[in-house]
């Protein structure tokens, strides 16, 4: 499972769920678009009340880290992480540019890989 509850912790189960999910999202362990377990499934696995998980999900959604898509479920949102939001905006701009230049997907991705490789060598 994606989170665990430490019964000996000073943090409430709600805060443990909220903070562990937030950390995993920020670190990229839960990438954008990842589907989270249902409230009931996660609560059952952790042995806590569904309202505890629901509260954590609501707060993460209010912070922009999660988005609920009705019956489809709860997903990691792209808008919650400023770094990833900037990267997504840059990727969108790049995509517009290469499409406008008539460059195909494979070549566009090869250009990005080469640029990343060069950047990583400099750092």
Number of helices: 5
Average pLDDT, rounded to a whole number, is 90
The span between the termini is 35 Å
Query: What's the total count of β strands?
Result: 2
Low-pLDDT segments: none
Count of discrete structural domains: 2
Short description:
This protein has 123 residues and is mainly alpha-helical.
Annotation keywords:
2 strands; 5% strand; 123 residues; 2 domains; mainly alpha; Arc Repressor Mutant, subunit A
Write the layout of secondary structure elements.
Elements: H1 13-27, H2 39-46, H3 50-62, E1 66-68, E2 74-76, H4 82-100, H5 105-122
Antiparallel strand pairs: 1-2
Helix pairs in contact: 1-3, 2-3
Structure description:
This protein is mainly alpha-helical and 123 residues long. The chain has 2 domains: 13-76, Arc Repressor Mutant, subunit A; 82-122, no CATH class. It is 59% helix and 5% strand. A two-stranded antiparallel sheet has the order 1-2. A hairpin with a 5-residue loop joins strand 1 and strand 2.
């Amino acid at each position: 499972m994606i989170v665990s509850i430490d019964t000996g912790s000073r943090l409430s189960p709600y805060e443990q769920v909220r903070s562990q999910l937030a950390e995993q999202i920020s670190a990229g362990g839960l990438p954008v678009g990842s589907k989270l377990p249902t409230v009931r499934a996660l609560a059952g696995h952790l042995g806590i009340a569904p309202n505890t998980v629901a509260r954590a999900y609501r707060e993460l959604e209010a912070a922009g880290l999660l988005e609920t898509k009705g019956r489809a479920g709860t997903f990691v949102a792209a808008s919650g992480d400023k770094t990833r939001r900037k990267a997504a905006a840059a990727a969108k701009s790049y995509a517009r540019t290469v499409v406008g230049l008539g460059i195909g997907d494979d070549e566009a991705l090869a250009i990005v890989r080469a640029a990343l490789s060069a950047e990583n060598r400099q750092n």
